[in-house]
Amino acid sequence: MKKKKVNLRDIDPKEHKGEHSHDDGHNHSSPEELSNFRTYLPAIFSFVMLIAGIAIDYFDAFPFFKGWIRIVWYTVAYIPVGFPVIREGWNSILKGDFFTEFFLMSIATLGAFAIGEYPEGVAVMLFYAVGELFQNAAVNRAKRNIKALLDVRPNEALVYRDDDFVSVNPETVEIGEKIQVRVGEKVPLDGILLSDKGSFNTAALTGESKPDTIAKGEKVFAGSINLDGVIEVETTKEFKDSSIARILDMVQNATARKSKTELFIRKFARIYTPIVVFLAIGLTFLPYFFIDDYVFRDWLYRALIFLVISCPCALVISIPLGYFGGLGAASRNGILFKGASFLDAMTKVNTVVMDKTGTVTKGVFKIKEVVNNSAFAEAEFMQYLMAMEEQSTHPIAKAILEYKADGADLEATEVSEVAGKGLKGTVNGKTVLVGNKALMTSNSIEVPSETDSIVESIVMVAIEGKFAGYVTIADELKEDAHQAIKQIREAGISKIIMLSGDKDSITQQVSKELNIDWAKGGLLPEDKLNEVEELKKQPETKVAFIGDGINDAPVLAASGVGIAMGGLGSDVAIETADVIIQTDQPSKIARAIKIGRSTRKIVWQNIGLAFGVKVIVLILGAGGLATMWEAVFADVGVALLAILNAVRLQRMKWQS
């Protein structure tokens, strides 16, 4: 059965404008409309009329309140809440969809009127309407975290054109143009910072409130808020390709990917509802052939109760609402699931495979140790090395050039590259060699044996034909790397594996330091893919792969759950992975697992609650032991309880 009135995919305001062909008189659009008093007015009017009618009936205060006057009174009470539902049921029938909840509620309440149970007929429809209002409030509450992302989408850009900065639509700005961002404004497009430095609030992108300070030449992301001074940025992407636009698109479409549980319940409801309708018809007429004192009115009343109880509201609404709440809670924690199906998949993971560089390490080379065997002071030794490395574009050269050496800078001349070995040149009139052991050996320079046991990348230096020293370069572990591995284990993951393209010796060292079960280095992307494919062949093994989303794209796509670190910087991550860790923090992986499990737990609690209560009251109703009031609880009451249970996801805290 299609639950038409709450389409959880309708997040984009553009899709909301006049697109609802199923207007049933309840609110299904925005929190602003829900806050409008007029939304509740029909239910309030019906409630006042119902209570007044019941009071008059009970106290018999007005003798004339009988016959057609009483019928008209309850009819007037019924119309504000009943007519929209009857109209929706009729529209569904015209479209070929007979067995909707609108049809069930209409038949049950009109049937109650037909047998003279006017207060109960009004009460059932009133409680249904109130349940819808609460339901929509819950849906909008669940949407709030995700819809808040829409507010960070910039709507104007100050672009430099014709010797002045002019305000334009960000969608019209081209790559390479210069834009200006004032204090408190959002950066409209991805780009490179032209100003000396900038401080940004990236909470909308990362979930972290801590300001991010960047230097000239570094990347700036759309949606960040400029906190300090007017800055200028050179755009590197069009608006539609910016980080925030891609993330928004992904989040807006996340609920389109239904979980297997959700799909099953919807298919079940389409079969279950007509069965219940035919059972109700049988409950009305079949006892005539088996019971001596058969009274049509009594059995019709039981059948109407049966119909009210049978409405699968609690199932059809609370389950997608549960998943939607999980998606919203995850996004608030800087974790983006591409759909409800991946929340489910995350709960089944028992093997985590991770890349090294950019996942548990920062992916930035730093000098770890300087060993100076020359006659020079360390600062002067480093000046010789830095003069040579200024001629190189290698990432290791960049790390060496960050060293702060006292004294005047030296300049290298006659620099030539020795393929696969390093550089040769002249600095301060002296011949200098900078590179690996092969370069030293080929120039007959004796290298200390201690260097053979060094795991990290090593840059050796020879000055005037003599070994002068070396520098070790290493990639730093992320601050929360140890914490991440510990928490992944605490989340119940039985096996943690590291696969890296870096040297095997370095991979093994990092693996040992983090207490990872098994590691392998020196792998090409296709080698990683083969390793994961082999793991997947093992029975009961559910693999999640965590990578940086660039060279790991094939593995991210092939694994049971692909988790990308660095959602801000990598287009491939957003395209390929199933889950994006926006903050680059590996500790968020355990939190993602916990959110998935909490969501699934609440969904199954709702399924058990709905089925359990409905079965009990259905049996009581068929046996004549339940009235319309119990039926109302079994339908609307259980739906409300399930919704409240689902909303708990918005308040949960997951430590990591």
UniProtKB/TrEMBL annotation:
Catalysed conversion reaction: Zn(2+)(in) + ATP + H2O = Zn(2+)(out) + ADP + phosphate + H(+)
InterPro entries: ATPase_P-typ_cyto_dom_N, ATPase_P-typ_P_site, ATPase_P-typ_TM_dom_sf, ATPase_P-typ_transduc_dom_A_sf, ATPase_P-type_domA, Cation_Transport_ATPase_IB, HAD-like_sf, HAD_sf
Family stated for the protein in its record: Belongs to the cation transport ATPase (P-type) (TC 3.A.3) family. Type IB subfamily.
Residue ranges of the TM segments: 39-56, 68-86, 98-116, 122-139, 271-291, 303-324, 602-622, 628-647
Organism: Arenibacter aquaticus
Annotated region (Disordered), positions in chain: 1-31
Enzyme class: translocase
Keyword rRNA-binding assigned: no
Cellular component terms (Gene Ontology): plasma membrane
Ranges in a coiled coil: none
Protein name, as recorded: P-type Zn(2+) transporter
EC number: 7.2.2.12
Any Pfam family hit: E1-E2_ATPase
A GO molecular-function descriptor: ATP hydrolysis activity
Biased composition (Basic and acidic residues): 7-31
Entry's localization field: Cell membrane; Membrane
Ranges for domain P-type ATPase A: 153-252
Keywords annotated in UniProt: ATP-binding, Cell membrane, Hydrolase, Membrane, Metal-binding, Nucleotide-binding, Translocase, Transmembrane, Transmembrane helix
